Amino acid sequence: MSAPHDAPGGTRRDGEHRAQTFGAHSTAIGRAGKVVLSLFAGDVNELYGRAKHWSGWNWPPFLLVVTLTTIALVTAPDGPARQLGWVYAVLGVAVVVSFARVVGVPEGVPEDRSGVRRGLMTGGSLLLAVLGLIGMDHYADHGEVAVTGTAQLIPNVPAGNGAEVELFVDNTPRRSMLRLALTVEDSAPGAQTCTPETEFTASLVGGGAPASTEGIRPGEAVEFPLGGQQGNVRVRFTVTTDEGCLMRVSVAEATLHD
Fold first, then answer.
1. CA–CA distance from 64 to each of 60, 67, 79, 247, 251 (Å)?
2. What sign does the dihedral 82-85-90-91 (CA atoms) show?
3. Do residues 189 and 252 lie in contact, with contact meaning Cβ atoms separated by under 8 Å?
4. Residue-wise over 64-99: b if at least 16 C-beta within 10 A, else e?
5. Which of 4, 58, 94, 212 has CB 3.0 to 4.6 Å from 203, enough for a Cys bridge?
6. Residue 226 phi, psi dihedral angles, 5° rounding
7. Cα–Cα distance between 160 and 180 in angstroms, integer?
8. Longest dimension (CA), the chain
């Protein structure tokens, strides 16, 4: 009996067949596809197995952290980055840790310790979220408030030696301190150079303000205790410069704080 032999196209005669390995209908491609599909199916099964742990009591702590973080962000006051930076960092860590808790403890953690790890992650993320919310609330009531853009100098004209200008600041946030700094530049830069010799004398107007502060240099910040003043706060500046000089005065910084 003669052995079966191959016919063109790779098909074995006498009822036996083998995969066609070339041509448009090659089944070798199907074999490779099965390998890829098996790998993909394994990944899907692993993902499904992990997703089963994302339900039930894993979600409420995560949703609570997200809610607290959202409230903190909505109520966040305007302030410098150095003031609020740590609060944003704490809130970010709280959300990341809480989501990691939902996804599941990383593989390799012993079963008897995974419960402890999950509990610590849940409690830690909630604690961080509450801390961030408290921090935002504190800065909303006592943090620094920049009012440089709304501060007004009157009269806003070039000032000579002995001229007085008044700075008006709205203390609507009700802070107890005001930090001010003024800058000057020559009114006629090509005809005078008086900036290095220019100084200010400043005094808070009204409210039992203390004595004036002398020898304030341009750009130097000065603190004024407001003593419970609300609404418009007035600070009077007297310009000291060389005779014949005219200086343009502007506000470099105006910040209310406690």
1. 6, 5, 26, 57, 44
2. positive
3. no
4. bbeebbeebeeebbebeeeebeebbebbeebbebbe
5. 212
6. -85, -20
7. 21
8. 128
Task: Give the DSSP letter string of 159-226.
Answer: B-TT-EEEEEEE-TT--SEEEEEEEEEESSTTT---GGG-EEEEEEESSS----EEEEPTT--EEEE-
Q: Which residues pair with 152 in a beta bridge?
A: 168
Q: Classify 146 in phi/psi space as left (phi over 0), alpha (psi -120 to 50) or beta.
A: beta
Whole-prediction pTM: 0.63
Which has more confidence, 256 or 29?
256
256 beta partners: 145, 178
DSSP 144: -
Q: What is the pLDDT of residues 190-223, one digit of tens each?
A: 777 888 889 999 998 876 566 688 889 999 999 9
CB-CB contact of 32 with 21 (8 Å)? no
Q: How far, in Å, CA of 196 to CA of 38, rounded?
A: 79
SS3 state of residue 233: strand
Whether the Cβ atoms of residue 249 and residue 159 lie closer than 8 Å to each other: yes
> Cβ neighbours of residue 59 under 8 Å, at least 6 residues apart?
102
Q: Are 54 and 46 in contact (CB under 8 A)?
A: no
Q: Where in the chain are the domains?
A: 29-142, 146-257
User: Please, are residues 218 and 182 in contact by the beta-carbon 8 Å criterion?
Assistant: yes
- DSSP class of residue 104? -
* Domain 146-257 in this protein, CATH class: mainly beta
Q: Report the alpha-carbon distance of residue 52 to residue 70 in Å, rounded.
A: 27
